[in-house]
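Show me any protein, fold above all:
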Amino acid sequence: MFTLNRRIFLICPLCGIFRSYFVCFVLEHLSRPVEALNALKDYLREGGTITVIEGDHGSVYFHPDSEAAHKAIQCQLNATAAGGNAMIGRELYHFVPAGFNSVHVSPRMVYVDSSKPELVEGFTKKTFTAMTEGVREAAIKAGIIEQQVFEQGIRDLYQTAETDGVFCYTFFKAVE
């Protein structure tokens, strides 16, 4: 994936004149994210900016708490460990390659309870829980988790979207 993108940049007639880049939820999937940032920097106009937003799947807090839900989420962490980093958000400041002048990182917490139905539906259910569900087959097949524990974890994550539930997650934004 990275090699293909670098080739695209090399043939781009606009190379070297980009004022800014917005990189969102990409670095967590790359095995060499520093190289990707350096490649982008090579094509950035002098004085240009790079904004990076990444999540941190280890920053999840919810009510009601559930051991099974934490185990299901851990499957997501294990799945990306092979070629990426699902907790890269917390590492953005230390992660930025040398040569960037001034990097500012700030946490962006998403807090969801039943008073925010759009976030309950859009974030808790259709984003985070759905993403965790996406590793079901691979996690069970790899023996990372037993099927009944995974299924209970998913049910418990959906429980956080009910009237008495709360769900919190942190994204990190880095700007140079």
